[in-house]
Write a structure and sequence with these properties.
The chain has about 210 residues and is an alpha+beta fold. It contains six helices and nine strands.
């Protein structure tokens, strides 16, 4: 007697048991699929939450006075820009690294965080994932104005603004985020390094 005939014979003789076993297997498969989908949905929700919150890691130079740093009185502690490249090539579990040089200054009597920024490095910056980089580059000679900065200074796209002795074109007005980004004037990292006479130096990696 073939195996297939034996299966059908047992099914015929024990229809109830067979049906219960079949339902049990179907239910187990259903639970597995549901748990897998729920786990994936949970991961996606956390990823979206962290993305909307902004950068979720911060690396500062050794010896940084964090009380001053968090009060936006950025201390003199700095580190080489090349550190971000080393991190991007390392085994550190992060998808992006963004080098910044931040400096608090007054522009027309308004406090502005001038932030030199370079594009994301890491898996995203290298195109190893399909995710959108968390920091795009700012072309040299241009700046992106945070919501509060743009409103306080009455800026419009295309305006020219003198920043630390250099004229920058306001290329983009950023949407309100209710974060420190609203107080930022983002510019090309190397432009800001030249303005502050700090070539190859940064004070934050996000």
């Amino acid at each position: 007697m073939s195996i297939l005939r034996m299966i059908f014979r047992e099914a015929f003789l024990g229809k109830l048991n067979f049906a219960l076993c079949l339902l049990t297997v179907a239910a187990a498969c259903g639970v597995y699929v549901a748990i897998t989908q729920a786990d994936e949905a949970s991961k996606q929700s956390v990823t979206r939450l962290l993305r909307d919150m902004g950068f979720n890691i911060m690396i500062v130079p050794k010896g940084t006075d964090m009380e001053r740093y968090l009060s936006l009185d950025f201390p003199e502690a700095e580190m080489p820009e090349e550190y971000v490249q080393k991190l991007a090539k390392s085994d550190v579990l992060a998808e992006h690294f963004v080098a910044k040089l931040q400096h608090l200054t007054l522009i027309k009597d308004h406090k502005v965080i001038v932030t030199g920024i370079r594009p994301s490095l890491g898996k995203i910056g290298q195109g190893m994932t399909k995710k959108k980089p968390m920091a795009m580059g700012v072309p040299t000679g241009e700046a992106f104005a945070g919501h509060t900065v743009a409103k306080s200074l009455g800026l419009k796209e295309g305006d020219s603004l003198e920043v630390l002795g250099k004229n920058l074109k306001i290329a983009k007005l950023l949407d309100e985020k209710n974060t420190l980004d609203d107080l930022r004037l983002m510019a090309n990292l190397h432009d800001v390094q030249k303005m502050l006479n700090k070539p190859g130096r940064i004070n934050t990696i996000d």
